Task: inverse folding
């Protein structure tokens, strides 16, 4: 087994062993939209590992748009009676025979490049996708979970942590905001369907660290990994001072399932940990030290500071307050240093020992 497969197997085991209300999922059917995504795939792995471990009989329906990627991602589950691959675009109505007890919407263009090159697809996958899946949940009397984003808060003055009721400016005519605006609209749809009687829960994840994401994705931590693989260097596009909240994928998935099973309908929960906060420069230094057998340089791209809108318009602090989700009994377990080590090990940067997934 290669290191990447080993990381996935260990993380699936951590999720399957988590202290949660597993009894509510026993014998139930869970539809996961966007299952090809680098985070939603771990929902699939974790639930099916739970079946292997405890024989809970959870039926997983993985809704994916790309057949080739899905068949590669989930090849190990081919022929299993507890796994079904549903190939369709989430922007089209979803028709399923039989019961569906839980619906999780995680379908959206993931990379920065995808969002900016095809903003209409980004908006429709989130908004039309939410409506189609909420309609399904309404017909099937299922519980619905939206994977939203901490990005919905927009630009808020000051440096305090973001609580669920505090919102800032978000220009709807700036195409760079299409992902954030789409998530806001999807949340509003959840509020509408909650009044209609559908149990709708929302999570707003911070930046999630995990293996399985494309190296050209454009997210901060993946940019760092890509640069280290190419030239033993991390190039900062700004001054490195903006602060972000980071969370390892096993904590993210257990948080999602906790909100699905214990959260209140019509409410949103930040999915983050204060222990995982770091500035861009601090994250770069931490990841550089985790690259075993390499000497990583940290440099600055001075031109991008002056001309790149992704740098000049960056929000200084995007760190959520985790107080609300912790009232449900969830708490992050993987320290940031270990999260970085495990993620980097997936890509061959962390040496031979990936550490333990549960911290």
Result:
């Amino acid at each position: 087994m290669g290191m990447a497969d080993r990381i996935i197997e260990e993380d699936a085991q951590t999720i399957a062993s988590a202290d949660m209300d597993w009894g509510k999922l026993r014998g139930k059917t869970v539809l996961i939209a966007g299952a090809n995504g680098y985070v939603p795939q771990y929902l699939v792995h974790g639930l099916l590992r739970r079946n292997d471990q405890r024989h809970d009989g959870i039926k997983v329906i993985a809704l994916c748009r790309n057949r080739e990627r899905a068949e590669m991602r989930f090849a190990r589950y081919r022929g299993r009676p507890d796994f079904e691959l549903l190939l369709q675009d989430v922007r089209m109505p979803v028709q399923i025979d039989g019961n569906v007890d839980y619906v999780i919407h995680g379908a959206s263009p993931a990379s920065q490049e995808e969002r900016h090159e095809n903003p209409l697809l980004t908006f429709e996958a989130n908004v039309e996708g939410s409506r189609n899946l909420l309609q399904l949940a309404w017909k099937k009397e299922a519980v619905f979970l939206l994977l939203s984003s901490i990005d919905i808060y927009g630009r808020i003055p000051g440096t305090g942590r973001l609580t669920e009721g505090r919102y800032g400016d978000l220009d709807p005519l700036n195409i760079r905001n299409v992902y954030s605006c789409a998530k806001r609209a999807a949340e509003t749809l959840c509020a509408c369907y909650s009044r209609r009687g559908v149990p709708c829960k929302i999570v707003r994840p911070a930046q999630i660290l995990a293996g399985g994401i494309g190296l050209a994705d454009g997210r901060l931590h993946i940019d760092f990994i890509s640069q280290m693989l190419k030239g033993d260097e991390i190039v900062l596009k700004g001054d490195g001072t903006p602060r972000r909240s980071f969370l390892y994928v096993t904590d993210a998935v257990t948080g999602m399932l906790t909100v699905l099973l214990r959260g209140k309908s019509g409410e949103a929960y930040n999915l983050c940990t204060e222990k995982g906060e770091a500035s861009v420069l601090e994250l770069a230094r931490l990841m550089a030290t985790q690259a075993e057998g390499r000497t990583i340089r940290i440099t600055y791209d001075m031109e991008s500071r002056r001309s790149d809108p992704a740098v000049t318009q960056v929000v200084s602090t995007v760190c959520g307050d985790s107080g609300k989700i912790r009232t449900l009994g969830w708490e992050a377990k993987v320290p940031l240093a270990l999260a970085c080590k495990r993620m980097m090990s997936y890509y061959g940067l962390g040496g031979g020992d990936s550490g333990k997934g549960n911290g």
The first helix runs from residue 3 to 16. The longest strand covers residues 59-64. The mean pLDDT is 93.
